[in-house]
Here is the input.
Amino acid sequence: MPTGISLHVGLNRVDPDRYDGWDGTLVACENDARDLARTARANGFADTVLLTPECTVARVTAALRDAAERLGAGDILLFTYSGHGGQVPDVTGPDDEPDRLDETLVLYDRQFLDDEVHQEFLRFDHGVRIVTFFDCCHSGSSIELPGITDVTGRYLPEPKQAALYDRDRDFYDDLQRSLAKAATVYADGQGPPVILVSACQDNQVAADGDVNGAFTEALLGVWDDGAFRGDYRTFHRAVQHRLPPTQSPNLHTTGAPSAAFLAQRPFTV
Here is the structure.
């Protein structure tokens, strides 16, 4: 029987000492992580949940690397993230990011580049299936809705993004270049198949909520305690229909998932 491991990361705030006084307070991200872990566990996954102060780069990468060591061909990783999303300028060229921006997961101690997420996935056996649900802004290919004033957006404010990037420019530029160099060995497109279902497009922001984020609430509603019986594409469309045009969930793939993988029901080990 295949093995399923799930990792659920939820941050209701970040360390203000690492973000120049900004703590990014949110309401529902820890609930998202717990609820998705409960769903994964009910469907046969061995789950790990990291909440707020536990959600450091070191803890997240350690959990992903532990999963990479334990999973082999035919197994599955489910990785979910709820928190703020951000962007930093991409210095590796337009072939990597057409919008010349790298999307980030805003972890407790620093921003985690989408290139870093990809690099961690490359550690997995190429026969491992990887599924990610990212409930954060700018999440279309990683990871306050416009015109709506009664919700909180899961985004690192642009003035703060710019100030933090100016402060840490050398670190992020060097990190992007080193990751790009390390990834050249996979230029033929090899790597494990990954399905990302995200809260919104790269140029959009995602809404927080009182209990769950808007995306996670829609996802859990479609799943309906396991009543859903469709595949990933049907699942994505159903989640998309529950959200407004200003927050359009994305279905993004890397590593060429097979037709059989895409045809599976979500949360299938």
User: Anything to note?
Assistant: The chain has a mean pLDDT of 89. Helices lie at 29-42, 57-70, 114-121, 158-183, 214-223, 232-241, 259-262. The chain is about 30% helix and 20% strand. The beta strands are 4-10, 46-51, 76-82, 85-89, 101-106, 111-113, 129-135, 194-198, 250-254.
